[in-house]
Amino acid sequence: MVRTVKVLSASLLAGMLLVAAGCSTKNEAQPSGNSATPSATTESKTGGDKKVKLRVVTITTDENRNNIMDKYIKPNVAKAFPNVEIEFEPGGGGEDMANKLKTFNAAGDMPDVFWDDAGYFTPLNSTGSIMDLTSAITKDGFLSKYAVPDALKHFDGKIYSLSSGADTYFTPVIFYHKDMFEQAGVQVPKTFDEFIDVSKKLKSKGMVPAVTPGKDGWGPKLFLLQQMIQIGDPQAMADLVNNKTDFNNPSVKAGVARIEKMVKEGVFPEGIANLDYGPANEMFTSKKAAMYMMFTWELPNLAKDNTVDFFPFPSASDKYDPTKQVQFWGSPLNGYAVSAKTKYPDEAVKLAEFLAMADAQYFESTGAPIALKTGNTVAEPAPLMKKFINWYNPIPTKIASLALNSLDAKTSAELATQGAKLLTGQYPADKFSADMGKIWSENTWFKK
Q1: What is the biggest distance separating any 2 CA atoms in the chain, rounded to whole angstroms?
Q2: How many other CB atoms are found less than 10 A from the CB of residue 265?
Q3: pTM for this predicted structure
Q4: Any residues with CB less than 8 A from the CB of 163 and at least 6 apart, and which?
Q5: Is the dihedral of CA 65, 68, 71, 76 positive or negative?
Q6: Residues near 400 by Cβ (< 8 Å), separated by ≥ 6?
Q7: Which of 214, 368, 386, 429 is the most exposed place for a label (fewest CB within 10 A)?
Q8: Where residue 391 falls among pLDDT bands split at 50, 70, 90?
Q9: CA–CA distance, 294 with 298 (Å, rounded to integer)
């Protein structure tokens, strides 16, 4: 049976946007245990002074995640859970997190609470390792704190993960340094051909035109392939996400060819296929690269440099209009999940709620819109965030991310591998499409 991936409407997003326009990035407000936080004043059911012990595996991939842990979770968790001893374990992200959790699951050693991801949800769920949270969060009222509760539901109608809802507002864009563009005498490109020309001019001035994480196929898998298909034919991209087409589609092949063209035209630095997330970010922030292809979760950090601006991926045909179609990150499966085998389900659910609220408080403090209501008063967003919201929110067609909503674990790993090879410049686009066509035909994501 084919699963249908939701395309979010502008009205749904507008409703979410009303929840929080965001706070100023000047000062990150520290959570003070206000009523919005699930305080988990639940008494330990073990009795006496004996503490419940819970183990948590968290995502630890970037500065945002470090800030959430250091400024929102650690300073408040002991007060929120006086009768619980909590062990936090860093999980990394991507394949590292997937492999770690699959290993725990196979060994019967699942953490009580963990960061769930669409990429490895299926093997965990098939062994009964993930709790359906619907009843618990409805009963305690936490579900009512979400502006759009239905956005949490998996295709089977159940809720497995809790998040801040900020994911819906993450989309890939091209950040750029305005001063570097001025030095090179180039303007923001409106078309893909103009983007290639701008890149050539930047390179002629001794600048690296653009950078993005390439190691383990991160960029191609999570957004670059989708963007290169979408800018030529957004309907073909939506069809691929929904399993209504495959890698033999001419528009899909054309998107793959655009990645090959960027590599061969020198848009990216040498060794892009081995460039990790942190070094890619540093190349841009240190102005070793003029452009940075990345999700808008980096916007609050990058906006601290007043030379930074962004633009949508330029069009490759008249079928695409960046004010009418856009990719959105996120899946109802991404967020904090609870092991169905935990010894302390009540405490574990409360902890998952606390962690989701910590995420919400952090992203709210950066000016990012969220769907989980914190109860805090929010101020006008910072200029670059306001520009983003004003562009993104009215877009009528928001296409779900292929990486989170259409790939089983094997297909996900293979797309990452093939994507990294594509960035070497030694792997022809036609070969990529043929290889991925076979892999796609064996994808079990859409089978029930």
Answers
A1: 72
A2: 15
A3: 0.76
A4: 152, 330, 334, 335, 336, 356, 359, 372
A5: negative
A6: 5, 6, 7, 8, 241, 327, 328, 330, 331, 406
A7: 386
A8: very high
A9: 7
